[in-house]
Design goal:
Shape: globular
Structural class: alpha+beta
Number of helices: 16
Mean pLDDT: 92
Strand content: 25-35%
Number of strands: 23
Largest sheet: 6 strands, antiparallel
Distance between the termini: 50 Å
Radius of gyration: 22 Å
Low-confidence stretches: 1-6, 13-22
Helix content: 25-40%
Length: 468
């Protein structure tokens, strides 16, 4: 692809800001997105002494109620509108939460307008936008991953045959829609018939729309899955604490996949030996992307399977994970604004020589509307939030909530993420669940609960630590 015109250089001085002066004037920031991840990002940015006010586009019921935060009625997919409001508000930084606006070119548009943006360009975000591209990229740069094959729209008969041959050879598979599918485009069949049904669901029935125009079928890897993210300034990958999330909707990893029902960090399954290997892969990825003219700025989120042969890449995402953000940012000791601005400027170490992390552990439990990830009611009244937030070490992050004339109500499937922060996992989990137990989505006296959550978040961490 031809290289785009170079962007205008970032010039915070035009905003009345001296970015390297220790007592720089407090600035405003625009956070793009409206989920629990974005609420957590906004809360962490507000901790910076250099941040005055945070605009959230569009934000949610939680950000609407926070001090020094203002929701803006702008969709996170409205690239032109977001750039326009960033200029109008004279923000010092645009911090992008979800993947869709990045894949639509929001970071490129910000760069063209001379606005610092924490998030990768459209070309760099292709690492998430196309699983077919990412798997080819892994192969080209010899990054450790499962064997795979890609099939295009109309090739479903060839895909069926490939699945049959893999199972005949004793190899199980995973079937993935190549495009963006809101974190739900990975199907985990239990046998050859389910694998063929998964191919049909994506390629023939178009369950994920155009995201399934290409399908990746890859060998099933066995081991612990771990979310390993890094802050990247285009040259250096600074790895965060490892995290683990829970994708299935019900306890004991039963039921359909979701966007995530809970998470914890730091994940004890990432041993020091595995961590060295993961850090190397993340750094090699950033360097390879730069070599291809896809300078990567933002969060590089590697999903790894920790196998007996070492860490293996499952996929990359081009943003913070959700709900992992709700446990990672409470553990971040460094100033998130400084980290993000350093990455946007292309020199993280000049601004933050070392990204620091707190000791201790964090766990978050997602409170969902009953029925999620299928059909679920909206507009349910939310009660108990002040009591939950009053629990020591607990912060409630909002996702699918909105403020109405009658109070706060549910507006999505994943409604809240209740995070507990403590010195160890046992206490962090106890605090998180104590917070959850204060919350309900029903009027007093309702016969059945409309709030659903898993009751086994963190089980693997406790088991791992007890074995150790």
């Amino acid at each position: 692809k031809p290289h785009p015109k170079p962007p205008r250089p970032f010039n915070l001085l035009s905003l009345g800001v001296d970015p390297f002066h220790a007592d720089m004037a407090a600035v405003d920031v625009l956070v793009v997105g409206g989920g629990g991840r974005e609420h957590a990002i906004a809360v962490k940015l507000r901790e910076s002494p250099k941040v005055q006010h945070i605009f959230c586009a569009p934000g949610n019921g939680g950000t609407a109620a926070e001090d020094r935060m203002t929701n803006l009625a702008i969709s996170d997919s409205d690239v032109e509108g977001l750039v326009r409001v960033a200029q109008e508000k004279k923000v010092a930084l645009v911090f992008v939460g979800p993947e869709a606006p990045l894949c639509a070119g929001l970071a490129d548009a910000c760069a063209a307008a001379g606005i610092p943006c924490f998030g990768p360009s459209k070309m760099a975000a292709e690492l998430e936008a196309s699983k077919a591209f990412s798997k080819d990229f892994f192969a080209k740069y010899n990054l450790p991953t499962a064997t795979f094959k890609t099939f295009n729209s109309g090739d479903h008969d060839a895909a069926y045959k490939y699945v049959e041959d893999e199972y005949a050879a004793g190899r199980e598979v995973v079937v993935k829609a190549s495009g963006l599918a809101a974190g739900k485009g990975v199907l985990m069949p239990q046998n050859v018939e389910e694998a063929k049904a998964a191919v049909k669901e994506i390629m023939v029935d178009k369950a994920f729309g155009s995201a399934g125009d290409e399908v990746v079928i890859e060998q099933l890897l066995i081991g612990e899955e771990c979310s390993c993210m890094a802050f990247s300034d285009g040259s250096v990958a600074s790895m965060m604490a490892p995290a683990q999330d829970h994708k299935r909707v019900n306890d004991n990893d039963q039921g359909p996949n979701t966007g995530g029902m809970g998470a914890y960090a730091p994940a004890p399954c990432l041993t020091s030996e595995y961590k060295v290997a993961v850090e190397e892969v993340l750094q090699r990825t950033v360097e390879a992307l730069a070599k291809e003219g896809r300078k990567y700025v933002g969060v590089l989120y590697g999903g790894f399977m920790l196998t007996k042969n070492g860490p293996m890449l499952l996929e990359y995402n081009c943003r913070f994970g959700d709900p992992e953000t709700q446990v990672l940012l409470p553990l971040l000791d460094s100033d998130l604004f400084e980290v993000a601005l350093g990455c946007a400027e292309g020199n993280l170490k000049a601004r933050v020589p070392e990204v620091r992390w707190k000791a201790g552990a964090a766990a978050t439990v997602v409170c969902a509307a009953k029925g999620y990830p299928g059909s679920y009611p909206k507009g349910l009244p939310i009660h108990g939030l002040p009591e939950a937030d009053a629990v020591e070490g607990v912060k409630v992050y909002h996702a699918g909530t909105k403020q109405t004339e009658t109070g706060l109500v549910t507006s999505g499937g994943r409604v809240l993420a209740v995070t507990g922060l403590a010195a160890d996992f046992t206490e962090a989990l106890r605090r998180a669940y104590q917070g959850v137990d204060q919350i309900r989505f029903d009027p007093p006296g309702a016969e059945s609960a409309s709030l659903h959550c898993r009751r086994d978040i963190g089980r693997r961490a406790i088991e791992w630590l007890s074995k150790a």
